[in-house]
UniProtKB/TrEMBL annotation:
Pfam family, one: Beta_helix
Taxonomic lineage: Bacteria, Bacillati, Bacillota, Bacilli, Bacillales
Domain of life where this protein originates: Bacteria
Protein name per the record: Right-handed parallel beta-helix repeat-containing protein
InterPro entries given in the database record: Beta_helix, PbH1, Pectin_lyas_fold, Pectin_lyase_fold/virulence
Organism: Paenibacillus alba
SMART domains attached to this UniProt entry: PbH1 (SM00710)
Domain Right handed beta helix positions: 282-369
């Protein structure tokens, strides 16, 4: 055996730091040496400090809220000062009281793991404060909260006070008087209701005609010597919704009396005794009572905690604090590296979790349920928004210089890189998830269950948002902007398209629900042209700014001479409904020499960016042919591939008078359903029925509506046991029609069927009155019957 001292080796550094943790070494590439491993809180193997309840005067029987709150905080401060990084609160029930000025209960220091033992319940005593945080981590780093049950005061919370009155007033010096023409309130104690009274409102009362009141504030007791200040210009709510404040901090102004002049509406003593004025807060929704609040916190872990019945959110994560000078903000103050897992967040009034600024947030294996609902899981019992997860920093309403890539705006990252995986969200009152301004957001393998209004959505301008392999049961996924959806499974739920601008939706299934919505972003159509000025005017506002990129197209019609379909143009001299175009940014408007031919398109250069593939929409059985267009889309040039619809109808169309790029559809399989198509290039599709078809026909290719004149092209399609109506301008090539029927409305539109195989099929076109309405050429007929007249041309067809 060879024995050697580690310090004698040239790649070992034991001088900077002594070994610990069973002498574990790790390689430091910057030093090119092995050094003692640094332990994180998570990897610490030492036993936690079990908080001694007697030493810190803590009660675990639900009593002595003030002493218990102080005791736990004192224990944490002491432990931190001793270098202890893990404290364990024993089982029991702990009632907490908010601080009068910070509105917080427990303050978690940095580098501290606060663990609640099994059976540990922490509850907030009833308060009237619109704000509170049971756990506060402000500017905290490298800390953890785990275990236990945390209960807010939702069921006992006080949203207002009822203040009684006696006859008499208050002199200007603050002393009391017996003036019969005034009524005076009982003394209002700010210590008892510090949050509610921070910005208070006094409401008008029936029988009192005065429009205003006076108020007097005191230190500790009511006398002329303790008067902190007074005002005579108070106005009653709700006519005046703005609250009034205090003349000093709570320790110097904590008592208050209201007085009202009743000269114009005298009251008897009995009437005065019946008065009870409502006093509430300007912040009347009381939506800021949080279970755990992170403010500018970094490297935080929250796990295995049950949080419920808060008046606001179970967990709220935001930036540090408001700075008067924007230059004083730092990236660390935005908060980062928050890891929340295996928690149960439920029955809170406002949200399950709000991510309101923090970056690099991972949220996994949590339950979020019944937000905004009462114990029965049905009755609404909350305040908006009432979502399970809300990503919303409200950066545009702050003075924080914020990085926004969609605006080419530099600044600090807020709500960036958020990963939400393997969570279960159930019956949240208005929605499960909403992303107002998060960037690089991924939702992976979550289950969302229960009907809601808000659904699961991300706003239009949020970049790099991905929905991967999520399950929606009885709710709706709303896809916006350039969201990426791969693997959505909806049962009794829907996928909706709204404000699409580049979105991809693929590998998804909808059972007993809808796949519907519209994608018309950036399409404007044919404008009215002012030849003299080269101005293009639209019937509705276009929403563009100067310098927006636009293009001309002439799928139908002809662009004005002087404009080109091969060039990219920039808008100049915009009004709400009009603009001119230039070949260079902020350049001179182009000159046109004619107004073109009606039907050309002038739109954003990137309109029509909607990509849908590998979608199934189905139900097991349809009892009748009542029309159910559960796959229904309004598109401007979108692309669809590999779509299967069973026992429902399809409706894919463009806006009226559409002048843009056709919708491209490749690979539809429609089973036991009908379909309508407008302005589509349709290929490689199958339309199959075994049951009795829809009266009047199953498949409509185009229509005879004068607003829809664009051609439908159908290539290499199979129609079996269906009725096909060639109602629009249709070219149908290389298709197979078996046990089907061909019909058409009598209109000016022209239908052409070529190079196709028809078997056991009926051609019913005898009522057509316009020349050359239908042409059937170079087709093979096998047991085909015809009922036609001279307006249907039959050319070079072969009958077997």
């Amino acid at each position: 055996m060879i024995k050697v001292n580690l310090s004698d080796l040239d790649d070992i550094n034991l001088t900077t730091k002594l070994p610990s943790a069973n002498d574990v070494l790790s390689y430091d590439s910057t030093q090119s040496s092995w050094v003692p491993k640094s332990l994180s809180i998570d990897s610490a193997v030492s036993k936690p400090y079990v908080i001694d309840l007697a030493t810190w005067n803590i009660k675990n029987d639900g009593t002595s809220s003030a002493a218990t709150t102080k005791g736990i905080n004192d224990a944490l401060v002491w432990a931190s000062s001793q270098g202890i990084t893990h404290c364990l609160l024993p089982n029991g029930t702990y009632t907490l009281k908010i601080d009068n000025t910070s509105f917080s209960c427990l303050l978690i220091p940095s580098r501290m793991h606060f663990e609640m033992a099994d059976g540990c319940l922490v509850q907030l005593e009833a308060t009237s404060s619109p704000w509170y945080r049971i756990f506060s981590l402000k500017g905290t780093s490298n800390s953890r909260i785990s275990g236990g049950t945390v209960i807010g005061d939702k069921k006992s919370h006080m949203y207002q006070l009822a203040v009684k009155f006696v006859r008499g007033g208050v002199n200007p010096d603050g002393s009391l008087n017996a003036n019969p023409n005034f009524i005076r309130s009982e003394v209002v104690d700010r210590y008892s209701n510090p949050g509610l009274l921070k910005s208070f409102r006094l409401w008008s009362m029936t029988g009192v005609s005065s429009t205003g009141y006076s108020f007097f504030q005191y230190k500790d007791t009511v006398s002329s010597s303790t008067l902190a200040g007074s005002r005579t210009n108070g106005l009653f709510a709700p006519a005046s919704p703005t609250g009034r404040g205090w003349f000093a901090e709570i320790e110097n102004a904590n008592k208050m009396i209201f007085t009202i002049d009743i000269t114009s509406s005298p009251l008897t003593d009995d009437q005065i005794a019946q008065l009870a004025a409502k006093v509430d807060s300007q912040n009347y929704t009381h939506e800021w009572g949080h279970g755990i609040e992170l403010a500018g916190a970094n490297h935080i872990q929250i796990d295995n905690v049950d949080i419920s019945n808060c008046t606001g959110d179970a967990i709220f994560a935001s930036w540090f604090e408001y700075k008067l000078n924007p230059a004083d903000y730092t990236q660390d103050q935005m908060g980062s590296h928050i890891y929340i897992h295996n928690c149960d967040l439920h029955h809170c009034r406002r949200q399950g979790i709000s991510i309101a600024g923090s970056n690099d947030v991972t949220f996994t294996n949590n339950k979020i349920r019944y937000i905004g609902r009462a114990d029965d899981g049905k009755t609404e019992d909350g305040t908006a928004p009432m979502f399970g997860i809300d990503i919303e920093s409200m950066w545009s309403e702050t003075n924080i210089p914020t990085w926004r890539p969609e605006l080419n705006q530099a600044g600090f990252e807020l709500n960036t890189r958020i990963y939400i995986r393997d969570n279960y969200l159930l019956n949240n009152n208005r929605g499960h998830f909403v992303n107002a301004d998060g960037i690089y957001v991924t939702l992976d393998n979550n289950t969302f269950e229960g009907y809601n209004v808000g659904g699961i959505s991300s706003y239009l301008n949020n970049m790099y948002v991905k929905y991967l392999n999520n399950t929606m049961i009885g709710c709706e996924l709303t896809v916006k902007g350039d969201n990426f959806v791969d693997g959505a499974l909806c049962t009794n739920g829907n996928i909706k398209l709204a404000d699409i601008a580049g979105a991809v939706i693929t590998n998804s299934k909808v059972v007993n629900g809808l796949f519907y919505g519209s994608s018309t972003y950036g399409y404007f159509g044919t404008p009215t042209v002012d030849l003299a000025t080269g101005t293009f005017t639209f019937s509705t506002p276009h929403g563009l700014g100067n310098g927006a990129k636009v293009i001309f197209e002439q799928w139908i019609g002809k662009v004005p001479a002087g404009a080109s379909v091969d060039k990219l143009y920039y808008t100049v001299n915009i009004t709400a409904n009009s603009f001119q175009v230039s070949e260079t940014l902020n350049g001179k408007p182009i000159t046109i020499t004619d107004i073109g031919t009606t039907g050309f398109n002038l739109s954003r250069y990137n309109y029509g960016r909607c990509y849908i593939s590998d979608i199934t929409v189905e139900r097991d059985w349809r009892a009748d042919n009542s029309l159910s267009p559960n796959f229904q889309l309004l598109l401007t040039g979108g692309i669809l591939r590999n779509i299967t619809v069973k026992n429902f109808e399809m409706d894919i169309r463009t806006p009226a008078n559409y002048a843009g790029r056709p919708i491209t559809i490749d690979g539809i399989t429609l089973i036991e359903g009908g379909a309508n198509f407008e302005a589509c290039n349709l290929s490689n599709s199958s339309f199959l029925r075994a049951k009795t078809g829809i009266l009047g026909g199953d498949i409509a290719l185009g229509s005879n509506d004068a607003r829809y004149t664009r051609k439908v092209i159908a290539d290499n399609c199979l129609f079996q046991n269906v009725g096909i109506n060639y109602n629009g301008n249709v070219t149908n090539n290389r298709s197979t029609l078996i046990n089907s029927s061909i019909g058409k409305t009598d209109s000016t539109t022209i239908a052409v069927i070529t190079n196709s195989y028809l078997e056991n099929t009926k051609i019913n076109l005898h009522w057509l009155t316009r020349d050359k309405s239908v042409t059937i050429a170079k087709c093979i007929f096998n047991n085909v019957t015809t009922d036609i007249n001279a307006n249907t041309r039959m050319l070079d067809n072969l009958t077997l």
